[in-house]
Amino acid sequence: MNVEMTRVREDDLDMIMDWRMRPYITRYMNTDPVLTREGQRKWFQHIQNSEDQIHWVIRLDGKPIGLINVVEIDRVNSRCSWGYYIAEKEYRSLQLAMFLEWSLYDYVFDVLKLHKLCNETWTENAQVVKLHIMCGSTQDGIMRQHIYKNGVFHDVSIGSILAEEWFSKRVNAKYDRFNFE
Fold it and tell me: Between vectors from CA 106 to CA 103 and to CA 111, what angle results, nearest 5°?
């Protein structure tokens, strides 16, 4: 499996805008955006100059299939949060999801040298909550009725993994390590 993460470039913006407005992508996201090219360009300019977030396009054999990011990078408290989606459904698999998650752990703890990686997942997205736990994260708790979207309150699972937890689990993890640009 030849997977690599490349930093978002300006010529990726139309593709990302299309992905981000697909109902099956926004289903478990906090917002249903109506994106514009101008808005995408402003977002791109913001992330290019940001020290607290990094966004990559996930590429499988050179084909762009999704997006992965780290956000809320906090050097003082040595932590960040992350998220991702595979926009092209035919490429979704448990193996890809696990390898992406573990490779991101490597990036956060080996490259960024942070202490803690956090995740927030709607409890309705039970498969992803289970995936995070299977990959080594701990479910720290549930924020009840935390997100209000389309007339409904949604509970959010909060999880995390610490660097020392990943380093001890990584010894036995068998995975392809994907590169982050």
Answer: 125
**pTM of this prediction?**
0.95
* 36 Cβ contact partners less than 8 Å away, ≥ 6 residues apart: 17
Containing 72, the helix (H) or strand (E) segment is strand 63-74
Structure tokens at 19: 């992905």
**179: how many CB neighbours lie within 10 A of its CB?**
12
Q: What is the SS3 assignment for 51? A: coil
**What residue ranges do the domains of the chain occupy?**
3-180
Which residues are 142's β-sheet partners? Answer: 157
Q: What is the pLDDT of residues 141-158, one digit of tens each?
A: 999 999 999 999 999 999
| Class at the top of the CATH hierarchy for domain 3-180 | alpha beta
Q: Dig out the tokens for 4 from the structure.
A: 């690599």
**CA–CA gap between residue 62 and residue 78 (Å, rounded):** 33
